[in-house]
Amino acid sequence: MKKILFMFSMAAVLLGMTACGNKTKTDATAENSDESPAMKLLNSVEFSEEGLVSMITTPADQPLSDDEYEALWLAYSKVPINQGKLELESNPIGRARTAIMKNHKRPSNASAIQEKLLTNPSPQVRGMAMGQFSSLFGLSKENVAKLTGILANEQDPFVIKEGVRALSNELKKEDAAKFVLGQLKSDNKNIRKVVAWAVGNYWSIGVPGVTDAAKTLINDKDDDVRGAMLGSVGKLEDESFIPELVKVLNDDKQYKLHADCMRSLYKLWYDFPFHKHTSKAAYDATIAYLSKKPRTENVPAWNSVGELRTQAESSFGAWKAKATYFKVDEYIKLMTDIATDANANWLGRSGAIDVIDKLGTKADLEKVQSAVKANAADKKQNLVLSAIERKLKK
């Protein structure tokens, strides 16, 4: 009898554990205990774009009431957090806010409401309030101290990630750098990924600890984090990272990270859209990668070829005068080699055609067209020819 009772007890415990284990989404949408007028207003309508819009009774062109404005932010408490990505699930709030604010103004008390939301019981509300806090207030030294003070005791990973994002342009302020760089060892890869973007940022150039942080993140155990750092480290305008980028580019097994590495190399030598920074070493590394043979579906990465299809016309000429390593004819020749290579990914070949169209002439495109037509063994011939024809018909 005791054995039977024990088995029933264990079954009940296991059932309870299972129920707890399935609360990822239901916890996020649980009834908020907030009994404020703003929450009551929110709960009086359906949680949909139409419902949220119907909640606003203030006449058009007038400031929202404090309760209406707060209720729009409290609505985030109803949205589940995708724990795998640390992002909010799809929801109607953004569309509703756009529709509402198109015809209304913020209340005069918006700043006080926003500051109050930073300590709301809902992590969704706290997290979303972080970004709005920085855009409303501008992050002065005092406001950075206020935000990092609140974040110092934060335990929720979603809020921490949003806090890093809000502070990502502020690492020259000591409090911000201390908090952001303090997340380098976070167990959550999504937080480390946002740290990588904060570190690989023009505003972080010269900040103590940033170079070491970038090196740490380039060698992170998670490829998403590594990709984020490899793809943004070029913004630090530091040529010492080129060997790290080349090391990955030389490993065909890491092809999924190649486009990230190339993004940083382009930033170092081409620097679109600013066209201010130059680097012959980065240019040489770019040419070496794009010239590697035999080409395959994965190397060069298809999305690493067409960078020069875009340029800022106002600053390109001045940049080109400084970037003496960049020879247009040589670059067009390389793009032609890729565009006509039947082994290369056809999307990469199409990117090369875009570059030829931007930097070259109609005759250059026709040369590629003739070469592709002549190769009957080219399995992607029709796709590549279509890309060329679209350019020639412009």
Give the topology.
Blueprint: H1 2-21, H2 37-43, H3 49-54, H4 66-74, E1 81-82, E2 87-88, H5 93-101, H6 110-117, H7 123-137, H8 141-151, H9 157-166, H10 174-181, H11 189-199, H12 210-218, H13 223-232, H14 242-249, H15 258-269, H16 280-291, H17 313-322, H18 328-339, H19 346-359, H20 362-374, H21 381-392
Describe this structure in words.
The protein is an all-alpha fold. Helix content is 57%, strand content 1%. It has 21 helices and two strands. It has helices at residues 2-21, 37-43, 49-54, 66-74, 93-101, 110-117, 123-137, 141-151, 157-166, 174-181, 189-199, 210-218, 223-232, 242-249, 258-269, 280-291, 313-322, 328-339, 346-359, 362-374, 381-392; strands spanning 81-82, 87-88. A two-stranded antiparallel ribbon has the order 1-2. Residues 1-32 have low confidence and may be disordered.
Summed up:
By secondary structure, the protein is an all-alpha fold. 57% of the residues lie in helices and 1% in strands.
